[in-house]
Amino acid sequence: MKILNVLKRIAILTLGCSVTQFLALASQEDSEMIDLAPFVVTGEVYAFGSQKIVHISDKDLDRLQADSLSDIFDRDPSIMVGGGIAAAQKIYVRGIEDKMLNVSIDGATQAGYLSHHHGQYSIEPELLKYVEAEPGTGAATAGPGALAGAIRFQTKSASDFLSDGQTSGGLAKASFGTNGDQIKLTGALFGQLSERINAIAAYTFSDSEDYDDGDGRTIEYTGHETSRAFLGLDGIMDSRHSFGFSFEETSDEGTFRHRPNFYGEFPHPVAFNVPVFMDIGRKTATFDYNFLSDDQNLDLETTVFYSDFVIDRPTQYEMGYESKGLDIRNHSTLGSHSLAYGLNYRDDTASFVGKGSTNGFLPFPLVYETIPDETIDILGFFIQDDWQVSDKVQASFGLRWDEYDYTDKDGQNFTNSGFSPNAGISFSATDYFDLNLSYSAGFRGVTPIDLITANEGGVTNHASMDGEWSENVELGFQYDNGTYFV
């Protein structure tokens, strides 16, 4: 009888009753408390109103033996990665390039556009806790400029490696790949610095030669050497206050084609596709502070971040995009409404420093000149409400407002602002079958074009430039019986 009562309570809780109702039910039916083993329910795709989230956990990455961006998103048809090497890999969500997305690493926005021939996201899957992708213009919480959605990479902290009662530990991993004779070494040390503070330090090194394609042909200038250093701290000061810090520095260097995403040499009218040495690097630092009040209506998350992405061609130029930002958001519960609201702020600088010429690209040298820095400030406010209308109906609606203040290399200033609304509803027709309908719109003000193009003579912004808009209307369904998913 006790087992039946327990099963009944779990069923009621699963159907949506609150924790308070659950505890009240337990006290009414049986005064004896029964301890159950903890369990976790995970899913690859879930939807709440207009929010469609693809969640990829560290366990998923382990099963996939993920080694690159393409491996991470290998099982989701809405997300594709083009390019055989990290220098060329770009993410496409529903066919739209990643520069139309809001991409973040540990909460640090990876903004800017250096070159339309280069990838800008170098990720170490071994250290990822999870990846979340939000395909299509979606929730107000997706951040400014999320015209085609958002992707969030979250790295592990020391706490994620330490098991109960463990105070220190280490990780060592070595791998070898026959295609390109790739060698990859990963090492990490983690442990408690004190009763309340944990730390992790990790380093990854990889070296590979040119790889072969499916027909056995060697693809020249694809060999490269990468290194990644990572440092993280996380701490709990008391039941209300916690914090986290992470720093990551990456380097990917090698002799690549002038356009890493194109194969072979061809007589381009501006510059031939000849090989050139490149060092592609990123530095990202974040600090998080979280506060939770006793009534849990003040669930505050604050993130301060810095990120700098650089492509250095020592004989030609160095171009980089630097972002400094602040994200503050709070989560509150009002009855059946779950609210998230806050602000985003970013201060970005795009720079291009000329170092030489394109000698060897054309019969005559084309000198790369240093151009003035381009700057942009972005301020946004948002609110998103997830509403549990009934046991079978969920709704979501939100609004964000963003203002962009951009000054280009020619001294022109562009100030734009706009609203991004969203609304959606989902209906659970059966235990396995859901229907959803949603509408969302996204705004992005005028932003810098890719820096390699900005350097070309005569390329400038038209004085009448205005912001960009996207709209997303969806009618969809989801079927998941635990064995089959559509």
Compact overview of the structure:
The protein has helices spanning 2-14, 19-29, 58-64, 69-72, 158-161, 451-454, and strands at 45-48, 51-57, 79-82, 90-93, 96-97, 102-105, 108-109, 128-135, 149-155, 168-177, 182-192, 197-208, 224-236, 241-257, 275-292, 299-313, 317-334, 337-354, 371-388, 393-407, 413-428, 433-444, 468-479. Helices cover 9% and strands 51% of the residues. Residues 1-44 have low confidence and may be disordered.
Determine Rg (CA atoms, Å): 25 Å
The run of helices and strands is HHEEHHEEEEEEEHEEEEEEEEEEEEEHE
Fraction in beta strands: over 45%
Residue-averaged pLDDT: 86
Q: Compute the number of strand runs.
A: 23
Low-confidence stretches: 1-44
Helix/strand-derived category reads mainly beta
Query: What percentage of residues falls in helices of 4 or more residues?
Result: under 10%
Number of helices: 6
Distance between the termini: 38 Å
Dominant shape? globular
Q: Major sheet, described briefly?
A: 14 strands, antiparallel
Strand order of the largest sheet: 10-11-12-13-14-15-16-17-18-19-20-21-22-23
Tell me about this structure.
The chain is mainly β and 486 residues long. 9% of the residues lie in helices and 51% in strands. The protein has helices spanning 2-14, 19-29, 58-64, 69-72, 158-161, 451-454, and strands at residues 45-48, 51-57, 79-82, 90-93, 96-97, 102-105, 108-109, 128-135, 149-155, 168-177, 182-192, 197-208, 224-236, 241-257, 275-292, 299-313, 317-334, 337-354, 371-388, 393-407, 413-428, 433-444, 468-479. A 14-stranded antiparallel beta sheet has the order 10-11-12-13-14-15-16-17-18-19-20-21-22-23. Strands 1-2-8-9-6-7 form a six-stranded mixed beta sheet. It has a three-stranded antiparallel beta sheet with strand order 3-4-5, with no helix packed on it. Strand 21 and strand 22 form a beta hairpin. Helix 1 (2-14) runs antiparallel to helix 2. It is globular, with a radius of gyration of 25 Å. The model is unreliable at 1-44 (pLDDT under 50).
